[in-house]
What does this fold into?
Amino acid sequence: MIPRTLFDADLDGFRDSVRKFLEQEAVPYHEQWEKDGQVSRELWQKAGELGFLCPTMPEEYGGAGADFRYSAVVMEEVSRAGLSGIGWTLHSDIVAPYILNYGSEEQKKNYLPRMAAGEIITAIAMSESGAGSDLQGVKTTALKDGDHYILNGSKTFITNGQMADLAIVVAKTDPKEGAKGISLLLVETAWEGFEKGQNLNKVGMKAQDTSELFFQDVKVPVAHLLGSMEGQGF
Ligand SMILES: Cc1cc2nc3c(=O)[nH]c(=O)nc-3n(C[C@H](O)[C@H](O)[C@H](O)COP(=O)(O)OP(=O)(O)OC[C@H]3O[C@@H](n4cnc5c(N)ncnc54)[C@H](O)[C@@H]3O)c2cc1C
It folds into this structure.
């Protein structure tokens, strides 16, 4: 085997901690999680306490300010243990960087520390039944009404969809403009009109909650637009 030179002693120590944690806190429960169609919230909280979530986020936002190798170690160890249900990568390495890079200071302070602590679980809701690869075809709309957007539409195949407390939702704020009318919104799943649909039955990844989401007149404050202006979501 070609020796790997990417990881140093610190990372080896980190890997050891992640591996032991997963052996104790995840492997024994995986079979049950496959039946449940999702992992436990407790797992997320414990992982957050130990710094395994959002490790690359700056310390001021609850992360460890670590480089991407730390995320890679978490991904490798989750895969090595065969834990197909844990949606940490999407949360730590897709959703968190969106908020860090495009979010307002208020959005970053509000969400990133709680994400790193495992207090909230996140998702990104792009795909719809008629829009997957060709994402500009999304039908979900978020039309401005005073100081809110009114969100209507639906999504499917959303990872962490059942467990999520917060979703980045791709929606058309200006449907006439096609791809240029697409924006990203930070939407809390507890808000009125936000409904989680069925947890989809898949061939594999049985412990991963992959869901439909429905929005009916969800009132999203304009301050929850991600990015400084509308139309930058595509
Ligand atoms: C386990 C799982 C988790 C997912 N998690 C998320 C999530 O968290 N958030 C989210 O938003 N979405 C998620 N998705 C959805 C995923 O992003 C879409 O399935 C993907 O974008 C493809 O879209 P589609 O399924 O509509 O297939 P289609 O876009 O209809 O594609 C069907 C087939 O046609 C091919 N094809 C499409 N367009 C072209 C073209 N122009 N030229 C040649 N071939 C083409 C594709 O390669 C594919 O083989 C998830 C899907 C799965 C299976």
Summary: The longest strand covers residues 148-159.
